[in-house]
TrEMBL record:
Keywords: Cell cycle, Cell division, Coiled coil, Mitosis, Ubl conjugation pathway. The keyword Transmembrane helix does not apply. GO terms for molecular function: ubiquitin protein ligase binding. Belongs to the cullin family. This is Anaphase-promoting complex subunit 2. Residues 106-133 form a coiled coil. Residues 123-346 form the Cullin family profile domain. PANTHER family: ANAPHASE-PROMOTING COMPLEX SUBUNIT 2 (PTHR45957:SF1). InterPro entries: ANAPC2 (IPR044554), ANAPC2_C (IPR014786), Cullin-like_AB (IPR059120), Cullin_homology (IPR016158), Cullin_homology_sf (IPR036317), TPR_ANAPC2 (IPR057975), WH-like_DNA-bd_sf (IPR036388), WH_DNA-bd_sf (IPR036390). One of its GO terms (cellular component) is anaphase-promoting complex. Pfam families: ANAPC2, Cullin_AB, TPR_ANAPC2.
Length: 453
């Protein structure tokens, strides 16, 4: 019969929603007065989800999309929500067990151009209380013993997967911190809009006050930095965080920071102390970034890198040749972190490995020899990720640039850290990978932003 055909196709119908509305109408008419078909529909859809959706190979964002479409379609099929209550339980249980569900939901809410964000922020009117609803219907006979009418608000349906909403607000703190620290020039207008939206959606959440303080820190930092620059113009610009309101950060060892930079940080701290008596600063250089300008014999470089990478290349400013042991001792870096930096500078064509464990500056292109090939093999033996390993994240990047549009490197790096499972690559490696994609004609770089070619 038509009903059984539509039931067998239900998963595909929901994936194709709203283009599949005619098929849903067919199914809705078939279900009227047919309790047997209602039971068959529930059992069939749960089975289809189990086989095609609720498994480790499915992306969490895709599962959330299907869940949202399930809510919409089953609301059309059965307005009291009895069928939805039954088919949603396995999906809700699976999402609750996924470690990245909360992060995916909150990340989508923070990205205005995200497709899931558009879905979640389109709020349907909540169901009224029974006693005030002119179109009240009695609870259907096939309802579960613990059935309760649910709101049609999509965000509420997602956040109610967890017992307490505080878990979402805590995740918001972490994500907002990442996004605020990834911005350059104190430009946070977009984050302010997102925060105001989230305040409306998480009314009464006490921890939202922490987000307010974090945003205020960025705004105040711009003013304070401007006053400090008037007194001691320099190249250091700081974002000053209220420690108790930001996610906890470990204090790094400042020995890895080059001496001249440490002197500038000290001057900045002194100037801050004059503006804010009885207060002091403790720098977290590992959270910052450094613009490095290099002038070699036949070429120049202007790169935005991590402080660790900057420290490594600075170590070659007075000595053209260094060993790995010397660098580890002078910079107080662990070997894996040091190797990552050496791989980055080698791929930029600025360093080369003369012999195992010994690196030198490539002052001119003519100095580049076949030793570079040997060097790559030596570095890969320490399990430093290669470009090929970045290919696993390419589809995430394509999805970002498709849904959001052109993005700067810092935003792509931040979004990969939020969306991509186990992504822990430095921004420099991402930049190298995108440069390769540019050479292949897959992406373009215009005005400091990457977009699909």
């Amino acid at each position: 019969s038509l009903a059984k055909i539509r039931i067998a196709e239900l998963f595909d119908i929901i994936v194709d929603y709203p283009a599949s509305l005619p098929a849903l109408e067919d199914l809705r008419h078939c279900l009227q007065g047919q309790p047997g078909l209602r039971s068959l529909l529930v059992a069939s859809y749960i089975d289809q989800c189990s086989k095609r959706l609720l498994h480790p190979g499915a992306n969490t964002v895709d599962i959330i999309f299907i869940y949202v479409s399930t809510i919409k379609t089953f609301t059309l099929l059965d307005s009291p929500g009895v069928l939805l209550d039954k088919v949603a339980r396995p999906i809700r249980k699976y999402l609750r067990e996924r470690g990245d569900t909360i992060r995916c939901i909150m990340t989508s809410l923070l990205n205005e151009a995200d497709e899931l964000s558009a879905e979640l922020n389109t709020t349907a009117a909540e169901m009224q209380d029974d006693e005030n609803d002119l179109f009240w219907e009695p609870t259907p006979v096939d309802a579960s013993p613990d059935y309760m009418r649910r709101t049609r608000d999509l965000l509420d349906s997602l956040t109610s997967i967890y017992e307490h909403r505080d878990v979402f607000v805590k995740e918001l703190q972490v994500l907002l911190a990442d996004r605020l620290l990834a911005t350059s020039g104190y430009e946070i207008e977009g984050e302010l809009r997102n925060l105001e939206l989230l305040k409306r959606r998480f009314k009464g959440a006490a921890l939202m006050s922490s987000a307010d303080v974090m945003v205020k820190d960025i705004i105040d930092s711009e003013d304070i930095d401007g006053q400090i620059q008037e007194k001691c113009t320099g190249i250091v610009h700081a974002t000053i965080l209220s420690r108790l309101y930001w996610p906890k950060q470990s204090l790094p060892n400042l020995n890895a920071v080059p001496g001249p930079v440490r002197d500038m940080l000290t001057k900045y701290t002194d100037a801050y102390g004059e503006l804010k008596p009885n207060r002091t600063l403790r720098f977290l250089p590992n959270l910052g970034h450094v613009r490095v300008e290099l002038q070699l014999e036949d070429r120049e470089f202007d790169l935005l890198v991590t402080p660790g990478h900057a420290s490594v290349i600075y170590a070659f400013s007075d000595v053209a040749e260094r060993t790995v042991e010397q660098l580890m001792e002078s910079l107080d870096l662990i070997e894996s972190e040091l190797r990552r930096a050496l791989v980055f500078w080698t791929k930029q064509g600025i360093l080369r490995e003369l012999r195992p464990g010994v690196f030198s500056v490539v002052e001119s292109v003519s100095q580049a020899t076949e030793e570079v090939v040997v060097e790559d093999i030596a570095l890969d033996a320490v399990e430093v990720p290669a470009d090929d390993d970045m290919d696993m994240y390419w589809q995430f990047i394509v999805g970002m640039l498709t849904n959001v549009g052109a993005l700067p490197l810092e935003r792509i790096q931040s979004m990969l850290g939020m969306f991509a499972p186990s992504y822990d690559r430095p921004a420099e490696e991402l930049g190298t990978f995108l440069a390769k994609k540019m050479r292949e004609g897959a992406v373009q770089l215009k005005g400091g932003q990457y977009k699909l070619a």
